[in-house]
Amino acid sequence: MTTATPFAYRKALAAIPMPATARLTAAQLRGAGCVWCAAELHGDTAIDLEQRYNRIVGVPGRWFPRGCSPCSLRAVLAVCRTHPQTCEQCTDDPTLCEMRRALRALALELRR
Ligand SMILES: [Zn+2]
Ligand SMILES: [Zn+2]
Protein backbone atom coordinates (compact mmCIF):
# COMPACT_ATOMS: atom_id res chain seq x y z
CA MET A 1 0.00 0.00 0.00
CA THR A 2 1.16 3.55 -0.67
CA THR A 3 2.35 5.74 2.19
CA ALA A 4 -0.39 8.35 1.71
CA THR A 5 -3.48 6.30 2.52
CA PRO A 6 -6.53 7.87 0.85
CA PHE A 7 -9.20 9.11 3.25
CA ALA A 8 -11.79 6.56 2.07
CA TYR A 9 -9.36 3.71 2.79
CA ARG A 10 -8.70 5.07 6.24
CA LYS A 11 -12.43 5.09 7.01
CA ALA A 12 -12.72 1.53 5.73
CA LEU A 13 -9.71 0.46 7.82
CA ALA A 14 -11.20 2.11 10.89
CA ALA A 15 -14.39 0.05 10.36
CA ILE A 16 -12.51 -3.23 10.85
CA PRO A 17 -13.22 -4.60 14.33
CA MET A 18 -10.15 -5.38 16.45
CA PRO A 19 -9.76 -8.33 18.81
CA ALA A 20 -10.17 -7.56 22.54
CA THR A 21 -7.00 -5.84 23.76
CA ALA A 22 -6.91 -8.07 26.86
CA ARG A 23 -6.04 -11.03 24.64
CA LEU A 24 -3.18 -9.31 22.81
CA THR A 25 0.51 -9.41 23.54
CA ALA A 26 2.66 -6.31 24.12
CA ALA A 27 4.12 -6.73 20.62
CA GLN A 28 0.65 -6.78 19.09
CA LEU A 29 -0.39 -3.69 21.07
CA ARG A 30 2.77 -1.92 19.86
CA GLY A 31 2.02 -2.79 16.23
CA ALA A 32 5.13 -5.00 16.01
CA GLY A 33 3.02 -8.12 15.54
CA CYS A 34 -0.09 -8.79 13.47
CA VAL A 35 -3.11 -8.05 15.66
CA TRP A 36 -4.79 -11.28 14.48
CA CYS A 37 -2.09 -13.95 13.98
CA ALA A 38 0.79 -12.34 15.96
CA ALA A 39 3.21 -12.75 13.02
CA GLU A 40 6.15 -10.39 13.28
CA LEU A 41 5.63 -7.42 10.93
CA HIS A 42 8.17 -5.69 8.73
CA GLY A 43 7.70 -2.19 7.34
CA ASP A 44 6.43 -2.80 3.82
CA THR A 45 4.19 -5.79 4.55
CA ALA A 46 2.40 -4.30 7.57
CA ILE A 47 -1.03 -2.74 7.14
CA ASP A 48 -1.80 0.18 9.44
CA LEU A 49 -5.24 -0.34 10.89
CA GLU A 50 -5.78 3.23 12.07
CA GLN A 51 -5.66 4.66 15.54
CA ARG A 52 -7.94 3.00 18.08
CA TYR A 53 -9.18 3.95 21.51
CA ASN A 54 -9.57 1.07 23.91
CA ARG A 55 -8.94 0.10 27.47
CA ILE A 56 -5.50 -1.45 27.66
CA VAL A 57 -4.76 -3.20 30.94
CA GLY A 58 -7.63 -1.23 32.45
CA VAL A 59 -6.44 2.16 31.20
CA PRO A 60 -8.23 3.86 28.29
CA GLY A 61 -5.77 4.88 25.64
CA ARG A 62 -4.74 5.12 22.02
CA TRP A 63 -3.01 2.35 20.18
CA PHE A 64 -2.04 1.71 16.59
CA PRO A 65 -2.76 -1.87 15.59
CA ARG A 66 -1.17 -3.32 12.46
CA GLY A 67 -1.88 -6.49 10.56
CA CYS A 68 -0.18 -8.74 8.03
CA SER A 69 -1.78 -8.57 4.56
CA PRO A 70 -3.51 -12.00 4.56
CA CYS A 71 -5.19 -11.32 7.94
CA SER A 72 -6.07 -7.73 6.95
CA LEU A 73 -7.59 -8.96 3.69
CA ARG A 74 -9.66 -11.55 5.55
CA ALA A 75 -10.85 -8.89 7.99
CA VAL A 76 -11.77 -6.47 5.19
CA LEU A 77 -13.71 -9.19 3.35
CA ALA A 78 -15.60 -10.02 6.56
CA VAL A 79 -16.59 -6.36 6.95
CA CYS A 80 -17.60 -6.29 3.24
CA ARG A 81 -19.98 -9.17 3.93
CA THR A 82 -21.57 -7.77 7.09
CA HIS A 83 -21.56 -4.08 6.15
CA PRO A 84 -24.77 -4.08 4.02
CA GLN A 85 -26.76 -5.46 6.98
CA THR A 86 -25.98 -2.41 9.07
CA CYS A 87 -25.91 0.27 6.38
CA GLU A 88 -28.98 2.30 5.43
CA GLN A 89 -27.41 3.47 2.21
CA CYS A 90 -26.76 -0.12 1.13
CA THR A 91 -30.38 -1.09 1.82
CA ASP A 92 -31.43 1.87 -0.29
CA ASP A 93 -28.92 1.75 -3.13
CA PRO A 94 -25.59 -0.01 -2.59
CA THR A 95 -24.04 1.58 -5.68
CA LEU A 96 -24.11 4.93 -3.87
CA CYS A 97 -22.47 3.70 -0.68
CA GLU A 98 -18.99 5.16 -0.27
CA MET A 99 -18.06 2.81 2.53
CA ARG A 100 -18.91 -0.22 0.41
CA ARG A 101 -16.82 1.19 -2.43
CA ALA A 102 -13.90 1.90 -0.12
CA LEU A 103 -14.05 -1.57 1.41
CA ARG A 104 -13.98 -3.18 -2.03
CA ALA A 105 -11.13 -0.98 -3.23
CA LEU A 106 -9.22 -1.80 -0.07
CA ALA A 107 -9.78 -5.54 -0.54
CA LEU A 108 -8.47 -5.28 -4.12
CA GLU A 109 -5.45 -3.33 -2.91
CA LEU A 110 -4.64 -5.93 -0.25
CA ARG A 111 -5.00 -8.80 -2.68
CA ARG A 112 -2.02 -7.57 -4.73
ZN1 LIG B 1 -1.74 -11.92 10.48
ZN1 LIG C 1 -23.14 0.82 2.85
TrEMBL record:
Keywords: Signal
Signal peptide span: 1-22
The name this protein goes by in its record: Uncharacterized protein
Organism of this sequence: Streptomyces sp. 900105245
